[in-house]
Write a structure and sequence with these properties.
homodimer; alpha/beta; seven-stranded mixed beta sheet; two-stranded antiparallel sheet; 4 helices
Chain lengths: ~180, ~180
């Protein structure tokens, strides 16, 4: 199997979503069949062998990677969503952003006490979103065995907020 | 392999998102490892053997099913999103809802002329969202070979809007 340079397939878009931000656009990687397969294979390599009951993904780009990994791990799939989108009883977790704050929700019955959990998102930036997702899982008694992101912006030091957790990413940018 | 009754794992939530609406909650199906695997296997059975270049999914629950199917079909994955979320040059398509209207966007370079496309969403209701996604693909010269949804609310007659297309769903509700 030829290993693909995943980073070379990510498009860099300046000034998105606002001026001065360089956006790493993964859609150019995902639309390529070989890029897509390699992405999922390499993400799986980072977590294979772990005993995982639930793969938890953060809306909405986290959803992209969660199900293929859940299938390979024999796990179920759990959605963490923005407020008001989950129909049954939820728990919620607020977190602060550079300006203002956000809230994430998860169904109360999504995780059972003692379950082993892998949390997935597309991007690790400041770590605030991921920390909120970890809190949701732990509130329900889940054990966060692993945190996995496709892209990590290391210069934003998101790992500092996630100390003590097994945090992995496939592609890193240091500026 | 024991066949699972997928419908029995879907939770019915009354009065969501508003009074009088019965919401079919697929999260209870997806969190179950066997339910998740059967869902993807059965969706794949509906499209296997087709030559598909791109699997297009509609934000955000469409994303859940698209990548495992794209991997099995050897296709790439394309995102159709709400306005302002895709960073590069997009095309857009407005469509009407019961009250007001919505818009969907797709990257201009997501589909090449003549590519064979499978479009996926979680739900087929009135068909408006799916019709808009079909228009986006066709504007770029893609050929919509198949439309696949997990749940179809047959009483909303979404298929009437999608005449001439190969439309399939796994689970139907007639009220």
């Amino acid at each position: 199997m030829v290993k693909i340079n995943l980073k070379s397939k990510i498009r860099e878009v300046p000034d998105f979503p606002k001026k001065g931000i360089l956006f790493y656009d993964i859609t150019t990687l995902l639309k390529d069949p070989k890029g897509l397969k390699s992405t999922i294979d390499e993400m799986y390599n980072l977590v294979k062998g772990k005993k995982i009951d639930k793969v938890v993904a953060i809306e909405s780009r986290g959803f992209i990677f969660a199900v293929p990994l859940a299938l390979k791990l024999g796990a179920g799939f759990v959605l963490v969503r923005k407020p008001g989108k989950l129909p049954a009883e939820t728990i919620s977790e607020a977190y602060t952003l550079e300006y203002g704050s956000n809230t994430l929700e998860m169904h109360k019955d999504a995780i059972e006490e003692g379950e082993s959990v892998l949390i997935i998102d597309d991007l690790l930036a400041t770590g605030g979103t991921m920390a909120a997702a970890i809190n949701l899982v732990e509130k329900r008694g889940g054990e966060v065995k692993s945190v996995l992101c496709l892209v990590e912006l290391t210069f934003l030091k998101g790992r500092d907020l996630l100390k003590g957790y097994d945090v992995q990413s496939l592609i890193t940018y240091d500026k």
